[in-house]
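Re: the 63-residue chain
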Amino acid sequence: QGLEGEALKTKLEADFRQFMRDRAKLVHKAVVRLAAGEQPSLDSIWAASSGEPAVEAQQEASN
């Protein structure tokens, strides 16, 4: 049984907000790396967002 009416609207709004937050984080990572003179690939941006804190911390420390 799927969601309907107000429950569906609420769920979709929450999902969309999370999607936009996640997308904004990816764009931010790409812009920071581009501003640092790098030419990151899409794969490297996705990898950096896959929950590898050590890699992200090293990248931010070098900026």
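Helices lie at 5-35, 42-48, 53-62.
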